[in-house]
Every structure is written in C-alpha cells, then in structure tokens.
Amino acid sequence: MDFRTGAWACAILEAQHADGSWGQFHSRIAPYKDWTTEQALRRLRILGFTREDLPIRRALAYLRDCLLGRQAIPDRREKGAGWDCYVELMLATAIRIFAPDDPDVRRVVKQWRAVVTASFETGTFDERVYTRVFGDTFGMPSSSHPRYADLSCRYPIELLAGALDAVTGAALVRLVLDHPSGLYYVCDGPIRTPPPSGTDRRAGSWIGAIEILSFHPGKEVRRELRFAAAWLDGLRDLAGGWDLGPAARDGIYLPLSDSWRSPGVRRTDCTLRINALMERLCGQTGEAEPK
User: What one-character-per-residue DSSP string does 188-231 give?
Assistant: First the structure.
C-alpha cells in the first residue's frame, strides 16, 4: 500500500519550509502543534518515503548543511560543552536513517563505533573504558551531556545499526534491553518486560523500541529479541493479524491510513507495522523462532 499521497503525508509536506526543514529540528516549543524536522522525517519514513523522493532530498540537503556547519538548526542552544556534539549526533542519525552510506555521516559513525567497540571489548559493557574513550574521542567527559552520552539513548543506537560487528551489536542491544530506564526518547521502563497487553498505552512505545533494536543485524541480535517476537506472535488474532486498539494512534508510527473510523482499517495498519517488524525479528515468514 502507498501512503505517500494520503492526507497524513500531504499535511506534513505542506508544512515543509523552503530550506527543506520544518523549523525546529528537535525541540518542541509550546503549544507543540508544529512538526519538528526530526518528527516529520520519522513520520514520512514510516509512510513510505525514501531518499529518492524530492521532499526527502531537500531535507537531507538541509541536514548535511547543518552537519557541515554551513547552517545552524534554530533550536535554542542548551548549556554545556556537549551541545554541539549532541546536535551532530542527532543530525547524523537523521541522515543515516535515509542514507546509510552518506559520506558526510561517516566521520560521526566512525567516532561512535570506536567508542562503543572499545567499551564492549571484553564482551560486556565496561563503563570505565567507555568514559575514557568517550573523553578521548570527543574531547570532553561523558558527564557533560548525560542524555546522549548514556547508551540507553535512541541516537547512538540508531546511528550504529549495521555499523558494528555482530558480537558488539548484540552486546549493545543486550545493554539497552537490560537498562532500567528503557530507551530514552522512545520507551520508559525495562524493555525486557513487555506491556500487559497489545492495547496497553505503553505498547506502541515498547514496540517502537524493539523496532529500533531490530535494525541491528545478526543471529545474536535476533536471539536477544526472541522474547519480543514471541510476545507479538501471541497477540495475533484468529486471522493471523494484529489490532493494537485506538491507543496505538500516536501520530508518528500510526495511523498509516487517513482514517480509523473503521476498526478493519486500524487492524490493517497495525498488521502492516508489526509484519514488517516480525520479518526483521524472525525472517520472511513472520513466525516466531522456537525457544
């Protein structure tokens, strides 16, 4: 199904600025009605847009200009030495989601890959090594901006998907799964504990965290996420699909269709989302791997 010409996509595209942005990149300013560039791009990707589409090409050109210092994002500058590095990480992540081979992002990926690889060299996370290598790489202590320096934040996890060796990638995913706070900006609470039901208000954000982790390839990662595949498999209805209920309407991941007046349309949208995730978790059949 092609959602790129639907009402959701049209509304976002109409709000795109002449420079390719949607105004604020990351910060949501009251009354929180406008799209940020980051939100708009995530939503358009979910609706099926790729780097080949003109609005995405315009947005990527803008993001590259900001990454290379030719422009600056309009967000209010936060205090602390880590702000510039934080912005660079966010910009590189947004670009790499659409263009994983982008040469302008390569330097940022290389830096974070070196930090994470060294931190898991023994097979488990070594915080002392992480603190030291982070400081050597970025020229400041990891405590200078703990939101993004903590590896439970979505940005380094998304940035490094497919950029780590299989063992390190699985160890990073394991760290996030075991983190008591979940995945920052996505899901609060331990990810290894699924929501009580598929229609729970936490289900959408929990699935969002699993989706981000699932882009790290390899059998070891799939093994770590097997519990999530089994939980999702248990939510299938009698026809083999999924319906996460009205609470799944978060405006980013869902809806895909223009209207959820019909429960059947909602079910179709939910099934499309979870099928795509199950293919990454378990292979093309969408069946959960046996324990």
Answer: ES-TTS--SSTTSTTHHHHHHHHHHHHTS-SHHHHHHTHHHHHH
